Amino acid sequence: MGCCTGRCTLIFLCSLQLLAALERQIFDFLGFQWAPILGNFLQIIVVILGLFGTIQFRPRYIVVYTVWTALWVTWNVFIICFYLEVGGLSKETDLMTFNISMHRSWWREHGPGCIRRVVRPSSPGILEDYSYVSVTGCIIDFQYLEVIHSAIQILLSLIGFVYACYVISIFMEEEDSFDFIGGLDTYSYRQPPQEHVELKPVKPVGRSK
């Protein structure tokens, strides 16, 4: 089968998802966001499987990609709710770092237009190495940048889910068609060959005188 529209589109979408996941993984590593790092790693692995299955005509790999896509959409919806503090969630908690560190999103201090300053308090009784970071001038707050990243992931995943289901249906139809044609060929091959009797002319026997 050649590169049909659905199959080529799914390959393109998987490539976009792979690039988006790699970009997100880099910035999550910089911010020590361990929960998103784990999710991004699984996303990269499954997208590679989906890409391989689409190129090599392996419907089972695409099914795995389809199931994971639904879970990935759910995870990104949770991230949006987390940063928008929906349902009692708070972006100031250490949930994204599994409560093992106090790191926050990398975009918190390095967003577009942000000016980062390390301020050392001059109050007596405070250790000299104690300091805090002041961030001002951000064009867009870090939580909205995280929301935009998750929204892009959801959009790509939903489109990929639709095309993955379409490609799976195409593969299944072709397999059914191939099995049907192969079954007819096998049946005709197994038929016992008919015996052909070669007829030869018989010479008349002359009468003895």
Overall mean pLDDT stands at 83
Structural class: mainly alpha
Extract low-pLDDT stretches. Answer: 183-190
Distance between the first and last residues' Cα: 79 Å
Topology as H/E string?
HHHHEEH
Give the CA-based shape. elongated
Largest sheet: 2 strands, antiparallel
**Fraction of residues in helices?**
55-70%
| Strand order in space, largest sheet | 1-2
Tally the helices. 5
- Indicate the radius of gyration in whole angstroms: 32 Å
* Total number of beta strands: 2
Transmembrane segments: 34-55, 62-86, 151-171
Protein name: Sodium/potassium-transporting ATPase subunit beta-1-interacting protein
GO cellular component, one term: plasma membrane
Family: Belongs to the NKAIN family.
What can you see in these coordinates?
By secondary structure, the protein is mainly α. It has a domain at 5-105 and 141-175. Helices cover 60% and strands 5% of the residues. Strands 1-2 form a two-stranded antiparallel ribbon. Helix 3 (59-83) packs antiparallel against helix 5. The chain is elongated, with a radius of gyration of 32 Å. The chain starts with a helix and ends in a 19-residue tail after the last helix. Mean pLDDT is 83; it is low at 183-190. Residues 1-21 form the signal peptide. This is Sodium/potassium-transporting ATPase subunit beta-1-interacting protein.
